[in-house]
Amino acid sequence: MARPTLKSISKRTGYSLTTISRALKDGPEVKPETIAKVKAIAQELGYRPDPSGLRLRTGKTFVICAIIPVIPVIQPGQTVGDLGSLRLVKGLTEALKGTNYHLMVLPDSGTGDRMEDVRYVVESGIADGLILNLTSTDDRRVRYLHEQKFPFITFGRTELSFDHAFFDVDNIDFAYRASSALYKKGRFNQRIVVSDLSYSYCVHQWMGFKRAALEHGVEVNQQQHLIEEAKIPSYDELVVSMQSSDETVDGIIFPGEITCLGVLSSLQKRGKTIGKDIDLVTLENSHLVDFFGVPITSFHQDTLHVGNRLSTMLLEQIDGKPAEDLQELVCTNLREAGV
């Protein structure tokens, strides 16, 4: 079946090609009822503007590119990857429906030169804007894009001196509330597991953890109370080292449900009862913890909504909205422990 064109719409409506073209662009010289009729027929026929023609006329690619951790393998043998990435991509895509834009995804392993893909997108001109994830406090990618005046938005914040567009989950608030919940249960010897302190959100989680400790009169330090997942050989070794150095650890906060599951298994193999000997709290992208069979408190971040906002805000920036007006911070939603 031939692809619908402006001529197809013209044949159905009886309007000239000029009128059809102007109506599809909401031209002020075209009557509203004519615009409505043309668009209804265009939708019925499945008409889509020719991307190559659009690029020639506008100089735009009508592509946005997202560089995200599709399968970041942190632990040896881990093959599940980031549970939030699939919903994030879905959210990114859903926000583009009804626009001329399409999504391109480049996987970020978190290793090697993270500038390589960013430079490629900018220098090749294959996209009109970029979405970055896993930001650092002094992110070279963000600095480069700002200097190039290339439209971009980050999932996460930096500590750079200039404004840039971002959407972020408040990880200070998450860790503070998670730790506070443990203190309310009488858990005063806590540990927090973070992915990698080179990322801003992990620094924020440690800040929230420290804030809760200060309010409850507990002294904490990174060497004893913080565990970087990237430096752990295995979940078993994490539990062995933690229990051998201090058998009284009674609460652990996790950056995600996969890490929580790995440590849970190791704890249970060592005869620990969750909810009695020790309590676990985790950040989550899914409701996977509901299937663990033990009471685990979780804080949910809606990556579908995150993706939707990232795409929407990037398109607004491409259309000229200032970066300082494109900064949003949201909190996670508490889900109480249950079995």
Q: Would you write up a description of this structure?
A:
The protein has 13 helices and twelve strands. The chain has 339 residues and is α/β, with parallel strands linked by helices. The protein has three domains: 1-43; 63-169 and 303-333, Response regulator (Rossmann fold, 3-Layer(aba) Sandwich); 171-300, 3-Layer(aba) Sandwich (Rossmann fold), CATH 3.40.50. It has a six-stranded parallel β-sheet with strand order 2-1-3-4-5-11, sandwiched between helices. Strands 7-6-8-9-10-12 form a six-stranded mixed β-sheet, with helices on both faces. Strand 8 (251-254), helix 12 (257-269) and strand 9 form a beta-alpha-beta unit. Helix 5 packs across helix 13 (303-318) and helix 8 (171-184) packs parallel to helix 9. The chain is elongated.
The CATH architecture of the largest domain would be 3-Layer(aba) Sandwich
How many DSSP E strands? 12
| Shape summary | elongated
Helix/strand order, N-terminal first: HHHHEHEHEHEEHEHHEHEHEEHEE
Going by CATH, the homologous superfamily of the largest domain would be: Response regulator
Structural class of the secondary structure composition? alpha/beta
How helix-rich are the residues, as a percent range?
Answer: 40-55%
pLDDT under 50 segments (min length 5)? none
Give the tally of structural domains.
Answer: 3
- Taking all Cα atoms into account, the compactness measure Rg is 25 Å
Average of per-residue pLDDT values? 90
* Strand order, largest beta sheet: 2-1-3-4-5-11
Determine the strand fraction and express it as a percent band: 15-25%
CATH-defined fold name of the largest domain: Rossmann fold
According to CATH, what is the class of the largest domain?
Alpha Beta
| Termini Cα gap | 54 Å
Oligomeric organization of the protein chains: single chain
Largest sheet, in brief, is: 6 strands, parallel
Number of helices: 13
